[in-house]
Amino acid sequence: MLRTTKNMKEKYEKIQSCLFDLIPEKWDEIYLYASVIDRAGDVQSGEMYFYYFPKITILKRKPINVYEVPKKFNINEEEYLKIVDILYKHIKELRQDFIDTEQDLWTHLTISIAHSRFKVEYFYDNISQEQYASYVRHVIWRYQYLHIGGEIKEERKILDNYFNNATIKYEKKEVYQDGLYLKTANNLVGFDREIEAEKTRQLELEQKAAELEEKRIQKREQKAKKMEEKRLKEEKNNRNQILN
Q1: What are phi and psi of 38, to 5 degrees?
Q2: What is the CATH number that goes with domain 6-125+170-185?
Q3: 19 with 32: CB under 8 angstroms?
């Protein structure tokens, strides 16, 4: 039976925070797949991909691959991928919590956030030795969770083979779900973009203010110059009158 510790709940909160940070627009649902495989020599390998559905619009509902976000929203890719790395690090730390609490060790998981619910599905099958390659798993996962794929002949063949093969079953699956830990969360990627935009606007205002102040100074100097010229002219006229 799945046991959830305080440390695990802290990891769930960190994972949510990273996911929210990585999406620079309003969204309805998030789906993430991640695997962690132990190799010889204390080496770990794995993969991670995740998608979100933007807020429903008049356009067709279509999931966005989060790895496409930097180009789509003109975000610094290097900085963006740092958050992605932190997210995967939290997932590996979550797996370490299973080791520390002596629970069965999962090999891959799916996280879904929808309708204000946070759900984690843990799977324990030995994917390092299974017949499905990474691409095949991706096709199946997208079809199951995102309900997309199968239009291409190769993908259709993969899906038909998977669902028609009665022996293809997960050995074990456990589920954790709860309400969102972060009821309200700042989107740091979007927030950073807003900060930069605000900085740009502020700089433009400061430049305009500086230009206006410079014009005011020039006008005051010109006015003072004219007044001085007028005063000198009047003094000269007065001296001439006295001499005459």
Answers
A1: -85, 125
A2: 3.30.500.20
A3: yes
Place of tokens 């030795």: 129
Query: pLDDT tens digits, residue range 68-97?
Result: 999 989 999 999 999 999 999 999 999 999
Distance CA 30, CA 28 (A): 7
Neighbours of 136 (CB within 10 A): 17
Q: What is the pLDDT of residues 170-203, one digit of tens each?
A: 568 899 999 876 544 445 455 455 445 545 666 7
Taking each helix axis as running N to C, give the angle between helix 153-164 and helix 134-141, from 0 to 180 degrees, rounded to the nearest 10. 80
Residue with tokens 């958050």: 83
Judged on CB neighbours under 10 Å (0-12, 13-18, 19+), 33 is: buried
CA-CA distance, 150 to 143, in Å (whole number)? 8
Q: Is 195 left (phi over 0), alpha (psi -120 to 50) or beta?
A: alpha
